[in-house]
Amino acid sequence: MLGAMQDWDLVVSHLIDHAAREHGAREHVTRWADGSETRADWAGIRRDALRMTQALRRLGIGKGDRIATLAMNHSRHLVSWYGAVGVGGVLHTVNPRLFEDQLEYIVNHAEDRVLFYDAAFQPIVDKMRPVWKTVEHYICYDPAPGGDPGSRSGTGVLGFEDWIGAEDGDTAWAQVDERDPCMLCYTSGTTGNPKGALYEHRSTMLHAWAGIQPMAFDFDAQSVMLPVVPMFHAASWGLPWAGAMTGVKFVYSAVNDPKVLCDLMDREGVTHSAGVPTVWLAMFQHVDAVGRELPRLKQAVIGGSAAPRFMIERLMKAGIRVAHAWGMTETSPIGTVGAPTHDWDSKSFEQQVDVVQMQGRPTFGVELRTVSLDDMTTELPRDGQTSGALQIRGPWVIRRYFKAEQDAVNAEGWFDTGDVGIIHPDGTLQLTDRTKDVIKSGGEWISSVELENAAVGHPAVAEAAAVGMPHPRWDERPVLFVVRKAGAECCADDIMAHLTPLVAKWWLPDAVEFVDDIPHTATGKISKKDLRARFADYRLAE
User: Fold this and answer.
1) What is 13-310's CATH topology?
2) In sequence order, what are the beta bridge partners of 439?
3) Which of 51, 174, 341, 414 is the most buried (most CB within 10 A)?
4) Tens of pLDDT along 254-307?
């Protein structure tokens, strides 16, 4: 061949180099837990990441070493993302909401050598330190002023700014291959020990390109992003990488108080935000309580769990584009994102909400299919009606878990997500359940998710969980567990009357039980496993 193109490894250090070179003065704002604020910019983030790279090398940290963070969202955490991979290491974001046995397991399983953490998590560090066998160095992002600076041997508390402040940043990023690992995220481990998803430089770069597409986060140089989704959860949906690609302004808050978030959004001109449904529910409650308007966002990305219809309607009526997303730790995490269809403008508002309430369509690079729940192999039609087990494959989808001996995909590369869904003819995904939570009554499937979302639309309902309970005739029937809003009153008949026009008659729960609370996993999702255990002796009559 007479022609050829230049070769350029897809490594994430290119992202921070680009951001500093082309968007160097674009600022970052961090509102800390104590109410103070600091400001940085992309050029400063790169400079500090290089200083961190130097400091890690002085500790003997190098290629392939795992470097953990136990922190909320702030600019120093962002520096660590690039500083950790800059030394050739693997960034391991640890979820502080995990249970102690899970924290012990994942840090030891990852064999983390260094741990960076927020002062707010000092009690966790102090408690876990004796059982974290591989961690040699502990560095605090925000130690109390005048505190003991400690030592680099990990015997005390070393402040992040003082630690990197001893370096000049005159160094180069480690030379790595695009298929080398750069990040490690663990699942929450709802069934057994957590599993590690090991992201590669190449997969991370491809995922970042997907993230900036108009159908996803829709970033450009004018975007101002306040990510409520924490940086320790599912790679913060890839935002720290995608944001560098387009030079967005990041606004961070180390606390998720709705007043703080609303104030930051209004003052800093935030155009984009991303978070789970409970974030938006808390924001609604705050603005309603104080009589203020919702922040004037351009786009809100909602993921983590299915958003109820009333939430989507309210955001859309406020002029905010809602991108309903689906993904998981094993998919880096973007799988599908809601986007307007080709006939969007011809649809009524109610029809548009119908579209947004579903989980959107795959970005380029992702393939989806559903298979029969009965045999888990027969591929199902994309007809908008047939429900089945959801499978996915693509260049940023897991092939094998960290340290596992076998692949997590079948011979054709399909990964079973554990979700149940319907794929429409235009490729739109509609999630209906988890395979372990779906209710099979008389041979027919009932969606617990749709029942729950319908129930929380009742003005007196704070939270609801639908669980299949044994039935002497139908095998299983749904029972709806409901938490009332504070000060609100409603009875089972009120809930049934509310549900009747919203779901099929045979989907209606056989019983509505009011409870003080519903158990959750460490990542904030409803724990059906714990709910079933709590009501193990519950019996439905014929």
Assistant:
1) Rossmann fold (3.40.50)
2) 446
3) 51
4) 999 999 999 999 999 999 999 988 889 899 999 999 999 999 999 999 998 778
